[in-house]
Design goal:
3 domains, Rossmann fold, about 40% helix, 9-stranded mixed β-sheet, alpha/beta, about 15% strand, 7-stranded parallel β-sheet
């Protein structure tokens, strides 16, 4: 193997936010801008594609206008700033101050100056009335609208027309050369929002970023948790393309903070009583004494509806303190708006079905102080509007789960240039205490994120070079070996480890390869999960597979565990999820390097758990439109064979011989091909399940499914009866379809992995451990006692652990040092247990006799 080529491949993985523009000279930037604004504009235009996360009142609109102006001049074309409704006047005022003529347009025909700067609303671009591809510099103001990464029409349109990534047609282009996003409050609780910005700016694909920095919840889609060892790296990476500014001095200690002190904030929480008379019942029919404070979406909506009169009475009580005050009333539901209009005659309200110009006119009049009181939803008015000049009091008729909209709405008043103490009144019910705690916790998380980012800027400044140096990841690994009686466990890159192994030295390969960009197990460039896409992953596998072929004995088998991948609708541009045939790509890759494809074993998975992972098989969605539903994704064990030296009869150089006395004809039938037919027992009656718990139901249904003649509708009736009894869980599939077919394994015990031991010991769990059952069957069928089983992706040692327990020898390499240490400990433990029985083994064997004696 060409190790130099492999080293060059790994080094090419290193990437930071690219600089796509020529450096801007200070003289090119308007002298009217303040020091921090000039520095931010220079940094943004130098990068070409950057995010400006400037605190409320720091002049985010001025920065965008100037950045777009300079970008448009350099690219010799028009500039466009896309705005939320109601903020047009803010940009017009700031542009006039800068001496930059701007014009609001809704169609390209209105753009009459080929070098002009134009404003438009998001709705205009989203609905196709204005194609932004006619512009050379574009900025998205309050770009949190991109938060709907995935299936939203807005994200797809903006990715296709501005970022040049049209997933629907499969066409990719360079996109608009100068593009910026700006918002004051990127959500720290929704990492997916930051990743959507990175994708839009062309910094990094969302899937690649997920893999690189996050530990994903394998049972919940897009529930991301930063790896502790990658937290600083993640925020450094974000800081390489996104500028967080809370005060001017964040950018340079010499910049003055005068005028940038926030006024006091008076937050008042008002709890109103909950009607516990409608608390409902538990699953088993037991009446609840109190309404739960752990509200789901349905319970929260019911609580909002039932408590509206009480909450409205509290709001009117607060208004009565100063009826003539300038004030904004926030609400979430249309029924709440209607209640406010009925209680406050003449109240100005904004809502979705209003004519856009009228809605914007009301917002402008309230901002200018012409209207004393305005009611609206945070999701509509919470972004971009500046109400601080005439208003410093807001009342929330209720609270909700959407932190990003909520914090934005608070900062419509609480921002720099606000001269009064800001009063915030929040009304909630007794049953919404947990919701209040959640908002407060997310507020603290938001402040923590801001502190981290401003500290990074203070530490490294705006130097791209210094940040790039800090972002350099580890390359290579110092080889460490732990070995004992029958096993070798190595901390090393599997490509480098297999390259040093002897040819024709391995009897069987059993491994679960990384699923391309799905997971990243270490912060090292050597990690196979640290790849840009599937093609990039298979490029690295091209260095490993030839080594696997070389070390495997002629005629022997490699068992490769894989699973196909799901592509979200927002990525493929189709609006619905599709399947990427990762298993087929695996077959092609192994065949390309000389392996022969032997067979495919199918392992059935839990469709309910899978839906929680991908949201692609939902019951509700199936009822809405069955045409967009696919099926559950099984796992596969793909079996490949290295051709034997003698091709005349096809036998391995060292055949895997079996004794017919132990490997019986019936056993052969199951291993080769065949069915386990019914014993003739009568079908299981649904009423037999009444009163049984879930464990008993599962076992009984499995026996029924395997022993009875299959009747699809009968089994559905059983499941419906279980649901009626309240025992059908929503988190996993209780009544799984069973199979007699030997190539479809439905009895794999999902919890039977070394992660069970890891969790018990409080240690780090492997991201996707291989089940014991899979390893057992592969080892038993394809190698003999005393032979060597290799796993190039050893993880926490499942394969060598099981090889030792089954009388074979184990060899595995693992890049993650923590996994390696755990794997070495497991192997050492089982080696000791087999060579010398311990005290606890003797006590366990003697336990029945001891109990009788007692």
């Amino acid at each position: 193997m060409n190790l130099l080529a492999y080293d060059q491949f790994l080094r090419a993985k290193a990437a930071v936010a690219p600089r796509t523009a020529v450096q801007v000279m200070p003289a090119e930037i308007s002298a009217i801008l303040k020091q921090h604004q000039r520095a931010a504009v220079q940094w943004a235009v130098d990068g070409g594609r950057r995010a400006l996360f400037a605190a409320f009142g720091l002049g985010k609109s001025v920065m965008q206008i100037e950045a777009v102006r300079i970008g448009a001049e350099r690219a010799c074309g028009m500039g466009l700033i896309v705005l939320p409704l109601g903020v047009r006047q803010e940009f017009v005022r700031d542009a006039a101050m800068l001496g930059v003529p701007v014009k609001f347009i809704r169609t390209i025909e209105e753009a009459t100056d080929p070098r002009g700067i134009y404003l438009t609303n998001y709705e205009t671009v989203r609905d196709g009335k204005l194609d932004p591809r006619a512009f050379v510099a574009v900025s998205l103001d309050e770009a949190a609208i991109l938060r709907g990464f995935g299936g939203s029409k807005t994200f797809r349109e903006f990715m296709a027309k501005i970022a040049g990534d049209d997933r629907a047609s499969g066409v990719k282009s360079a996109g608009i050369p100068y593009r910026f996003v700006a918002t004051a409050t990127p959500s720290p609780n929704e990492y997916i929002e930051l990743l959507a910005y990175a994708a839009f700016l062309g910094i990094m694909d969302v899937g690649q970023a997920k893999t690189r920095f996050f530990k994903r919840n394998s049972e919940k889609a897009d529930q991301l948790t930063l790896h502790p060892h990658k937290e600083r790296e993640f925020w450094l990476w974000v800081a390489s393309w996104a500028l967080f500014i809370q005060k001017p001095s964040d950018l340079d200690p010499s910049f003055s903070d005068e005028g940038y002190d926030l006024p006091p904030l008076d937050v008042r929480w008002h709890e109103v009583a909950t009607d516990h008379g409608a608390a409902g019942v538990e699953k088993d029919g037991q009446a609840r004494l109190f309404r739960s404070t752990s509200l789901g979406l349905q319970e929260a909506a019911r609580e909002k509806r039932d408590s509206l009169p009480t909450r409205l009475a509290k709001l009117m009580e607060l208004r009565a303190e100063n009826p003539d005050a300038h004030r904004i009333l926030w609400h979430d539901l249309e029924s709440e708006r209607e209640a406010l209009e009925g209680a406050i005659p003449g109240l100005a309200t904004v809502y979705g079905s209003q004519e856009l110009d009228h809605r914007e006119s009301l917002v402008i009049k309230f901002s200018d102080g012409e209207i004393p009181e305005l009611a609206g939803k945070p999701v509509m008015l919470g972004s971009g509007c500046n109400f601080q000049r005439h208003c410093h009091w807001s009342i929330y008729l209720g609270i909700g789960f959407k932190f990003a909209d909520w914090i934005q709405s608070i900062h419509r008043l609480y921002r720099f240039m606000q001269t009064h103490e800001v009063r915030i009144d929040l009304i909630y019910t007794e049953a919404e205490r947990d919701m209040r705690r959640l908002l407060e916790r997310r507020w603290r998380q938001h402040n923590d994120m801001v502190d981290k980012m401003t500290q990074i800027i203070r530490e490294y400044g705006l130097s791209h070079a210094s940040m790039a140096g800090m972002l350099a990841r580890s390359l290579g690994v110092e080889r460490v070996e732990a070995s004992g009686d029958g096993y070798t466990m190595v901390n090393n890159d599997c490509v480098l480890e297999t390259a040093r192994m002897d040819a024709d030295s391995v009897d069987l390969i059993v491994t679960s390869i990384p699923f391309a960009t799905q997971y990243e197990y270490t912060p090292s460039y050597n990690d196979f999960g640290h790849t840009d896409n599937n093609a990039h992953f298979w490029q690295q596998m091209d260095f490993l597979i030839p080594n696997l072929l070389r070390v495997l004995k002629p005629g022997r088998v490699a068992c490769i565990h894989v699973k196909d991948r799901i592509t979200p609708g927002g990525i493929n541009g189709l609006g619905f999820q599709t399947v990427q045939p990762f298993s087929d790509e695996c077959i092609a890759a192994f065949q390309r390097h000389g392996f022969a494809f032997l067979s495919r074993v199918t392992i059935v998975t839990d469709v309910v758990r899978e839906n929680s992972q991908t949201y692609r098989l939902g019951w509700s969605e199936q009822c809405k439109d069955g045409s967009r539903m696919g099926n559950g994704m099984p796992e596969y064990v793909l079996k490949f064979r290295k051709p034997p030296s003698d091709l005349a009869n096809g036998y391995a150089d060292i055949p895997v011989a079996k004794d017919k006395a132990t490997f019986t004809r019936p056993r052969w039938q199951f291993d080769a091909h065949g069915f386990w037919r019914s014993s003739g027992d009568r079908p299981l009656a649904p009423e037999m399940l009444d009163g049984l718990d879930q464990s008993a139901i599962f076992k009984l249904f499995r026996r029924h499914s395997l022993e009875s003649v299959y009747d699809f509708r009968h089994d559905v009736r059983i499941a419906e009866r279980v649901a009626e009894s309240g025992w059908l869980p929503s988190s996993f599939m209780l009544l799984q379809p069973q199979s007699w077919h030997p190539d479809v394994w439905t009895d794999i015990t999902r919890m039977r992995t070394l992660n069970s031991h890891q969790a018990h010991k409080g240690q780090e769990q492997h991201l996707c451990p291989l089940q014991f059952d899979i390893v057992e069957r592969c080892i038993e069928q394809h190698c003999m006692a005393g032979e060597l089983v290799l796993d190039p992706f050893g993880g926490i040692g499942t394969v060598p652990y099981m090889a030792l327990k089954m009388g074979r020898c184990g060899y595995a390499s693992e890049l993650n040092p923590k996994y390696f240490l755990d794997a070495a400990a497991y192997c050492a433990s089982v080696a000791r247990d087999q060579s010398m029985p311990g005290l606890f083994d003797a006590l366990e064997a003697a336990a029945p006799d001891l109990e009788k004696a007692a």
